[in-house]
Amino acid sequence: MATQTRSLPGVATTARRSEGVWRDAFGRLRKNKLALLGALGVFLLLFAGIFGPLLAPWPYQVQDLAAITANGNLPLPPFQSIAHPLGTDQLGRDILSRLLDGAQVSMTVAFVVQLVVLFIGVPLGAMAGWFGGRIDTYLMRVTDIFYAFPDLLFIILLSVAFRETAFGRALNGVLLVFVAIGLTSWVTVARLIRGQLLSLKETEFVEAARAIGVSDRNIVVKHLLPNAIGPVIVAVTLGIPTAILAEATLAYIGIGVQPPRASWGTLIAEGQGFIRSYPWLTVLPGIMIATSLMSFTFLGDGLRDALDPKLKGKQ
Amino acid sequence: MELTPDEAARITREQRESSAAKSKYLLEVKDLSTHFFTPDGVVRAVDDVSFQLGYGETLGLVGESGCGKSVTALSLTRLVPNPPGKIVSGSVVFDGVDLLKLSDDGMRKLRGKEIGFIFQDPLTSLNPTLTIGYQIAEAIRQHMGLSKKASIDRVVELLGKVGIPRARDRLNDYPHQFSGGMRQRVMIAIALSCDPKLILADEPTTALDVTIQAQILELISVLSDEFGTAVLLITHDLGIAAGMCDRVNVMYAGRIVETGSVDVIFERPRMPYAWGLLDSLPRLDDLRSDRLRTIEGLPPLLINVPDACRFNPRCAYARDACRDHEPELTPRDEPGHFARCWATDKGGWIP
Asked: CB distance A204–B124 less than 8 Å?
């Protein structure tokens, strides 16, 4: 047809952009104000976690004795000094710097724990879902066992058992906490992946992939996991606040980060004795924990809505 | 015992050389039986099916739903879901190689390369999270060992062949950006991607509307001629079979009940089931009735099948002989025409 070469007036002739699943989901996420707020919070926390120690006015362990001496040997309250914008603790250490250092600990915990979770959960879940049958039964009983462990107790026992080993001391005691928290939280992801694969492996595009000779491994990795990744992203994002909370709880009871390093949990523990006279010592790290939990939860909820194909076009 | 790849290749080659001389067929299926082992009993979905398919030939496999057509096609490429399905006996000799004796890996290397598959529903047969370009290139990368650039060129060429305009621009599009007919064109491009010798088309147009159907069938027909590809066309639509096929197998209840050239099957069928199917075709010149005619009843459950003609409960011509023994596929007047029916056999009661 000769008319095909002539472009119609008013019809765009530029190539269209390919819109993938991700662009689609991102478009929906952008319309969700709460999720954006969460994303902003997450971004700020990450920024604090990565660059905080560089930006901090003081090294976290340095005591500014002059400052507290001038204040009559009492901790400096927030907003009273330019050198210590958020005040100091009773030893003269800068609160802002310690909070920023705590952010680094919390963000590292958040992400390393999720890496451990993905590293264990995805392969186990994928194997159980893909092979099914007896392998599925065995793997799922293992996850049941892990699920049945009382998390905190398990982490505490692990920490105590390995405290004096090289592994327990690695990274100032933090590595042990990462692994312990990761070991108790991969179950959700494993179950998610398994469930997704159980239904996905029956789809026709798997049959079609088989019919062109794609190997089982490639079917799982290239065809199935990308289809299953949405819920996993949500689970991981929502798992982060749980991990942060677990780390704070452990730090509060003295497991994990060792002094003089600070974690928000240890800051609360250190400040609780003075909660009546110097409330900012506990309130400020408390606000940090609460903010990070809410940020990740908002973002996670937003992602869940954005990645759920059933909600397409409803918002 | 595990064979090394070298040994396996040698055996395959010897097998191919020794039988290629004997066979003028691309595909020879002999006594193929595929059973499903269900809690209710053994379902004989495909029961002693034998047929041949010549190089470049188009063979139709027609019958109602649940007659074993799709399971036959899946059995040829060993894609029957197991459990519960299992190929229990028979042989499938493709281009001189018995596919049922091939290793799993050998079979995998054959799928997509020598045997292409077009599925019924293009809406669900493409992976929604992968681009069209990736999905077509997958078979090419898998089997042809082309460089990335060469495989992209090949994909563009294929998309052009199946009639997708501006192919290069659409490589990175996702399936949901294509219409049903376009997606079936993509499926055809995938099936043809490695120049296969045989294409199994399992109801390729059932999910499409009538005008698109015609286009897709035309495309399959033109491209199979151009590539010299043999086609096994599975359909329940006799009109499609009449237009596309050289020969037709009529399947009923897991068995082939009549086989012959397309002309013979449509002009002189010798099996009441084939009459019934032909009679069920809506006709524009039939003014007597505005109701669609059907074959009464349903195909039987294929559990504990008695030794009797499987069509007898629905057959208007059935006599005691039909209920006592199952007839064999016996030759009729035309060469290559066989039917499984006591009534039209020698000495039968239908002349």
From this structure: yes
